[in-house]
Design brief:
The protein is α/β, with parallel strands linked by helices. It contains 23 helices and 27 strands. It is globular, with a radius of gyration of 24 Å.
Amino acid sequence: MGQSTPQNVTQKIIREHLVDGELTPGTEIGLKIDQTLSQDATGTMVMLELEAMGLERVQTELSAQYVDHNLLQTDEKNPEDHLFLQSAAQRYGLWFSKPGNGVSHPVHQSRFGRPGATMVGSDSHTCAAGAIGMLAIGVGGLEVAMAMAGEPLYVAMPEIWGVELTGELPDWVSAKDVILEMLRRHDVKGGVGRIIEYHGPGLAGLAAMDRHVIANMGAELGATTSVFPADDEVRRFLAGAGREEDFREILADDGATYDVEETIDLSSLEPLIAKPSSPGNVVTVREAAGVEVYQVVVGSSANPGLRDFAVFAEILKGQQGHQLVSVDVNPTSREILEDLSRGGWLFDLISSGARIHQSGCMGCIGMGQAPATGRNSLRTVPRNFPGRSGTDEDAVWLCSPETAAAAALTGVITDPRDLDMDYPRPVLPSEPSINTAMLLEPLPPEEASQVELVKGSNIASLPEFDPLPDSIELPVLLTMGDNISTDEILPAGARVLPYRSNIPRISDFLFNQVDKTYATRAQEAEGGHMLIAGENYGQGSSREHAVIAPRYLGLRIVIAKSFARIHWQNLANFGVLALEFTDPEDYDVVSVGSVVSLSNIHSQVTDGNEVSATLDGGRELTLRHRLSPRQADMVLKGGRIATVAKQNAKPEEIVDA
């Protein structure tokens, strides 16, 4: 493509950061990374990985560590991990956001986001930063650690999916309904292998935080990321954050094209809701109307803006929430909480009977606010995978703040257009609160080098993993269906996440939603084991614990119909071979207890993409992998840390497998 060829926003950012490969969909590219984001549920692994690599100081323009997930201090584990993360941020040169400051994604967008920058984050909703014209990609913690060390991010070049927005949102319909419409059309696999770029005249009616709502839940579509142009609205947002000097206009050229194209007429949308237990299970609110509601939760990275809370507060103003509904409000940052107080909305919420919680992810990640068994909970969060709320038999619905407010008042799912009131239009402050003091700056290098990591008793070292043998015979411990999420592989919530720094202990909770006997059987399976899954295996969170923990218990191979992007990359990073069925009938004949044998694995993986295996009984399985030569070498050596260690080792220390 010559210089005169019109480019879209995504192409412009990628070209500026391309260090390896070409912009051909499906081929591997390397990207220079400007910024990184990590949070406490995944950040402890990142910091332990930095320690294992011997890094002195981060090499990015900016890296930030947030504490926003594991906020409940029911014992010493979480606060001790917070101290560890703060000491690691000081040691390695990161910004640090203390507990209670807010959810990483909106705080980062407000304080550090920069149009045209690339960012990786150890959180799948890192893609929310695309709202202001960034190329922000959620990855596993090890990928973030590598980016901090100055290494490029390697990804398969996605197709660019242009979604033209036309028209204007009607009253009682908001940005959450836009992304729910995308999920209604395309389900949770529709964005796999794609970057979504929003464009068109409909953008004029979407504020930067509205765009954040849409970009955030691109993760639920399986997209690599979502991108919006950096236009006058982004300039206005950054000016309000006191950072107009960071603005840079990035617009698609006239005549720019996309690999895939689609149009959404915003004026045709109506209130939507995702039924339990998938973000892709979307219907109109009218179709679900009348279902009894037990709980309403407003907040999270999916609806983090002041407008989202203010419109909820103004709908409830002067009224009490229904007597059978728990109304829970999670402000997404200290700045939002300050503005809710300044604008009187906090008073309205308290007066209506709402419970005000600390700024953070909270119920979104199952950190408190778990619903009663079988009772419906309406939430403005991005995910409703089974058990994610902290209740095994949960019934979580995803909706907009408007729909949540209607249910809070009536006690049943209600189309907000049926409320007997005018649509509220909150007047937001022209100068939003700015609280830069809540963030701790990186220490100068000479001071940082003297900092010792503060490790509590619950922080264990990373396990060392051996290379993949050339021949292996493995029992199948689990067979699973489609769309198994990382929440089903390894739950979140207040019971499990405090062990995020202790792989041996957190392994006890593996696959509790699928088969509670897995951990015990895995420990008894000498020589390793494998898992079988359907399509989109590993969707959802970026947490690499969902790979490290089963690998610790002996997982060597996963065979699935297809994989979610981040989980597939995490499997490679920790030396687990991810294979796909080429014959759908093979999936149906493998069962728990089957034994699968593979020979000449190294040559099969490195010489091509086809891998043959033998099922006990003699049936031949034809499989394939999608690893690049770089990734194949990494898997065979036992993962990326082992590969880096071997690269850095002295000749006399190298022992080939």
